[in-house]
Design a protein that fits this description.
The chain is an alpha/beta fold and 320 residues long. Helices cover 45% and strands 12% of the residues. The chain has a domain of 203 residues. The longest helix is centred in the last third of the chain and has 70 residues. The termini are far apart.
Length: 320
């Protein structure tokens, strides 16, 4: 009987991959509870996260449906939408609003007390790169008036741009807060050689981070887990390739539409210029005929709706 060899692969799967994000965040664990607590900047310990159905249907016929990366609630019924984004940042903020208000709409009940059932909704999005041109890497977004008074208290957006996280991989000794530990780990864990002790930050041994890193360490995976990882990565790459192809096709279509619009505009402009030239020629003929018949320049100007100077210019141009 043959025994299967354990894989020699030994690396940390990226937190920001589809597989890495799902196995660390999409479950009630020490890491996921601590991470969510840090990402919403609260000192209140989250005791439990309940995973909710992450698919939703459109509200009306032909409305857009979708899938949340992670949708969960804690023991006090706060709702968390957690999204991880690698590339394709087109309409990112519109998509986040769509996700949050989709949940918001399902919480409102009929009757005069319908809005009393609303619960806090946190829409957390972690992106691999940076999309806003400043140094703020953790951003809070909500509805405020022109005097910065908070108006929308039920929905809060959190945008984390890992591309701006300022601490370099080699400088993990500069990491001091738990939130910095989380963002450092999410940004750099997959770049660290787990066989080189000098590259491993001491805080990786803390229970909450050790739990997550262990889930992503290929040397700790069973053959089935490794197979699932590779399948997930291939699927994610297929989706990314399809989305890139679709964006290229859309851009090509848009360029073609712009070309057609410009071509049509030029065509219309040429038509108008020709029409104006023909009109000017007809006007000139009428002016000349009237002038030859002895009609005064002032009278011609009045009839043609032009100034006497313009009439004289036309006559002089034709050397009459």
């Amino acid at each position: 009987m043959k025994t299967s060899k354990k894989s020699n692969e030994h690396f940390i799967v990226p937190f920001i991959s589809d597989y890495g994000f799902k196995v660390t965040f999409a479950r009630n664990s020490i890491f996921s509870r601590k991470a969510v607590q840090l990402l919403i900047d609260t000192n209140t310990i989250i005791k439990k996260l309940k995973m909710l159905r992450n698919e939703f249907e459109g509200m009306v016929e032909d409305a857009r449906a979708g899938v949340y990366d992670v949708l969960c609630e804690d023991e006090i019924k706060r709702i968390f939408i957690i999204e991880m984004q690698r590339g394709n940042y087109d309409n990112l903020f519109e998509r986040l609003q769509f996700y949050a208000y989709q949940i918001y709409n399902t919480l409102v009940q009929k009757g005069k007390h319908g809005f009393s059932s609303l619960r806090p909704i946190y829409c957390i999005c972690v992106i691999e790169d940076k999309i806003i041109n400043d140094d703020t890497y953790c951003r809070v977004l909500n509805l405020r008036d022109e005097n910065n008074n908070l108006i929308g208290k039920n929905i809060e957006f959190r945008l984390i741009e890992l591309g701006k996280f300022p601490i370099k991989q080699a400088n993990f000794d500069q990491v001091t807060t738990d939130k910095e530990k989380l963002l450092y780990t999410m940004k750099y864990a997959h770049r660290i050689n787990p066989k080189d002790a000098n590259q491993i930050p001491p805080f990786f041994s803390e229970e909450w981070l050790a739990e997550a890193v262990k889930k992503l360490d290929t040397s700790k995976m069973s053959p089935d887990q490794l197979a699932m990882y590779h399948i997930t990565m291939v699927r994610a790459r297929t989706i990314l390739d399809y989305e890139e192809k679709k964006r290229n096709e859309d851009r090509q279509k848009m360029r073609q539409e712009v070309k057609e619009e410009v071509k049509q505009e030029v065509k219309e402009e040429v038509k108008q210029e020709i029409k104006e030239e023909v009109l000017m020629e007809e006007q000139a003929k009428t002016i000349i005929n009237l002038y030859k018949k002895g009609v005064s320049i002032d009278f011609i100007a009045d009839v043609m709706g032009l100034s006497s100077t313009q009439i004289e210019t036309i006559i002089n141009t034709l050397n009459l």
